[in-house]
Amino acid sequence: MVLFSVTKKATTPFDGQKPGTSGLRKKVTVFQQPHYLQNFVQSTFNALPADKVKGATIVVSGDGRYFSKDAVQIITKMAAANGVRRVWVGQNSLMSTPAVSAVIRERVGADGSKATGAFILTASHNPGGPTEDFGIKYNMENGGPAPESVTDKIFSNTTTITEYLIAEDLPDVDISVVGVTTFSGPEGPFDVDVFDSTIDDSKVNELHKNLRKMGDLICNCYDALHGVAGTYATRIFVEELGAAESSLLNCVPKEDFGGGHPDPNLTYAKELVDRMGLGKSSNAEPPEFGAAADGDADRNMILGKRFFVTPSDSVAIIAANAVQSIPYFSSGLKGVARSMPTSAALDVVAKNLNLKFFEVPTGWKFFGNLMDAGMCSICGEESFGTGSDHIREKDGIWAVLAWLSILAFKNKDNLGGDKLVTVEDIVRQHWGTYGRHYYTRYDYENVDAGAAKELMANLVSMQSSLSDVNKLIKEIRSDVSDVVAADEFEYKDPVDGSVSKHQGVRYLFGDGSRLVFRLSGTGSVGATIRVYIEQYEKDSSKTGRDSQDALAPLVDVALKLSKMQEYTGRSAPTVIT
Predict the structure, then answer these.
(1) Which CATH architecture has domain 2-199?
(2) pLDDT of 81-117, one tens digit each?
(3) What's this model's pTM, rounded to 2 decimal places?
(4) Residue 443: which H helix or E strand, with range?
(5) Do 2-199 and 202-333+396-434 show the same overall fold?
(6) What architecture is the 202-333+396-434 domain classified under in CATH?
(7) Where are the beta strands (DSSP E) in 355-396?
(8) With contact defined as beta carbons under 8 Å apart, do 441 and 352 qualify?
(9) 78 with 40: CB under 8 angstroms?
(10) Is 124 a catalytic residue?
(11) What order of strands is seen across the sheet that includes strand 133-139?
(12) Is the dihedral of CA 239, 243, 244, 246 positive or negative?
């Protein structure tokens, strides 16, 4: 047995190590600075209760992006030095964010051990590679992201840190080979358990027992965008559900995501979009169903033949059909929730079905609190995140399986027929019942941070006089309703009473329309301004309009009211979804 010793390394704080909504994200070159990653990891260990570190089991894995394998070795050596008893690592350091949550909650080691938390190495939908992005976040014992009380402690620790602990003489572990390696240190044995996480994650298929009957409807095209979802796609869609190998697209994980941007939207998932008949170069007859995942497989995009399902509609449709379509929910839903910027489509479903409903800030940890308290079963974000209470993260593959379950139910008496109920049919039926929330999001990425803050401050200042705001709006577009309320969204958690302030600027119109402006916490440089534009139409004769036409007046108001070009210098958004 290899022996190791513990070394105390002197260090000094780095500026800017404050975790955002999904951890700390910076350029790879920033993380590669001496002591940079180590400072953050030690600050995290110091922020946790002693019993969640000493003698504990932690998970260390991620989406496999560039620098992940180096980071796994560094964190493993620091875990050993800090008295952690064992580290669980996904083979080749690969484990999706939802799989990590499931492993924390469900996996039991051969010795009966259970994980108390995890370092997840991901920058989610951000690009990867030597000059691109890396990220790290900590998830707690419930499988969900660390709450603000913990991330605030982590950040505070990063500002005062003077030393970190590391077992420098601990050999690197071969994480390409499944098995347990045992070492011995000052506090006793230390194990590194490398395992195949796809075996654990395939259990999610148990939530959808009716899918084997679907035949040709099974995921005609699944695009992993060269992210970690590719490691699960073969096992779940091909081996478990019988889809053809040819249905998998870009399912080989790569450290740089094949040079692409692993964000499942109409801009970046170009190959899938073309295949599904939505691209400019689409020629062949599209398949009936397609889906995409982001880098760490927690986000999803759902497409039908020549048809895009907005994330806001997606979570509303899943909630509306869950009880009858998905066996896991056959006894009913405890409640539903959405992030504040997400459209109000879910609100209408909740009201009609008499379900508990919650509107929370952006960040999955807020959903986790509700789920732990037994108050929420299904939740979603407009940023292509959907999930349920089976874990405490959004789950991209789960969302795909949920849609396939709905398709299976809708076609249960007609699987061999000529005319199947399609994705588009399901969405249009939903609009006919609940109305349509025309919705779009404009992203302005890598904007000067100072300019972005000035833009937001001006929007807040304008809220002091709604009469002036409405006068300005009428000068821009006379066909837009008046603003009846405006605020900065603030959330008081019904479970723990914590208050989250400054969560986005809202302008609420008399006809149910909304404009929301928010600075995103998921970028690695500069700032990302997100503008959310929504108009509700309950007249079923008007739900079939082109979305761009329906939203054009509000888009005009949003850009001119915010003085977007004046503050940012941008004449167009980086991404429109």
Answers:
(1) 3-Layer(aba) Sandwich (3.40)
(2) 999 999 999 999 999 999 999 999 999 998 999 999 9
(3) 0.91
(4) strand 436-447
(5) yes
(6) 3-Layer(aba) Sandwich (3.40)
(7) 357-360, 378-381, 385-388
(8) no
(9) no
(10) yes
(11) 2-3, 179-185, 188-195, 86-90, 57-62, 117-121, 133-139, 24-27
(12) negative
